[in-house]
Amino acid sequence: MKISRIDLWYVRIPLPDVFLPAWIPGYRQKENRFTLVRLVTQDGIEGYSAVQTMGAELEGLGGLLGSYLLGERADDIPSIRQRIREMGYLGWRVGWLEPACWDIIGKAADKPVYELLGGMPGAVKLYASTGSVRNTDYRVDEVAARVEEGFDAVKLRVHAETLREDVEHIMTTRREVGDDVVLAVDANQGWRVAVIADAPRWDLERATAFCRAAGDAALAWVEEPLAMDGYDDLATLRRASPVPISGGELNNQGLSEFGVMLEKGCFDIYQPDAVFTGGIAATWRIIQRIEEAGSQYSPHTWTNGIGFAINLQLFGAYAKREEKRLEYPLDPPGWVPDARDGLLEEPWLHSNGRLELPTAPGLGFTVDQKALHRFGKRLFTATQPRVAWRTVRDRGLAEARRLGRTRSNRIAARNEAFEAELAGGTTAVEIALSSW
Ligand SMILES: [Mg+2]
Hints:
By secondary structure, this protein is α/β, with parallel strands linked by helices. It contains 16 helices and 13 strands. Helix 1 runs antiparallel to helix 2 and helix 5 (136-148) packs parallel to helix 6.
């Protein structure tokens, strides 16, 4: 189970048409871009994960990965999480690496991750998640197209210049599409990015007025109506709003931050995305806390096909998945399954607004190596000899030997303790979920 090789790629998959993400107003997205990691164990099991990036800004991450992760057991999630936390001290948010270890644990056990977490095979219900702010005519046609494809729930993006335009948009859309379609709205105010075009910033007053109108339009929820760290305003808004408030999708991290949000009552629906909230073990614990608090869980999934897969696995294990819908990112003609999931041998294709949980082990997808060759640029490869050589070059032979020996001793001691727990009948999954 020891990690013996790490590869990083910067992947750029062209979109068939320009996509206008609501979360970066003015940006015309032409590619699905992300950083891909592959961990390979000594016995040859591969685990993948990915995080969305603007460019090759994670190129320098390779310098950290080898020193921190090589030689660690891929199934020793507490140790992996500790290494990930340590890498974060130096300014990198790298919780997205952890799901690659679950891919390995699942493949070693020949089970999908949701089964390791207690879930059963079956189908999940989806909602179509649009990605762009649109005018009302376009929106009405768009919702009709999704309904035609079998969806009964669609999430819109709304943040025009004025409140009046936003209210008109939802009222008209509701009137035109009828009462049978579940409609929700994402205001994308949680982590507003105004690097290209400016975008309206909602305050408590505007958010409250919008939520009242959302009640009149019978919306199922309003997502991210305020900044992600405006906890007190979010809690005030939630108390005043006739419709459920959701959030906590992307830049809110870890059990501690979600604990604060739950305590303050910021949201009715929490949307932790395991790519960003610290990985699968952390998110599973967050889901349990959401349940204990009597709140709802509905993950953010909008990154790429691999990010979707990671959250699909968690959602597949969620005890209440039958009653809920999972976010299915879809905004043709730009954001479509072939480009969204462009690195996977089989894209996540819905059928009538439903998706069968994958039965393949691990995270449930196979990376298409030809597509990776075509769209990916390898940034870094870490193996023990390469890292050792680099350390000798940077620090001299004597210091490299000392570092290597100390580190090997630390890993050997931890592995001995971990293997004793396994021998005692505790599984790697139980160790992963009980350690935080
Ligand atoms: Mg959102």
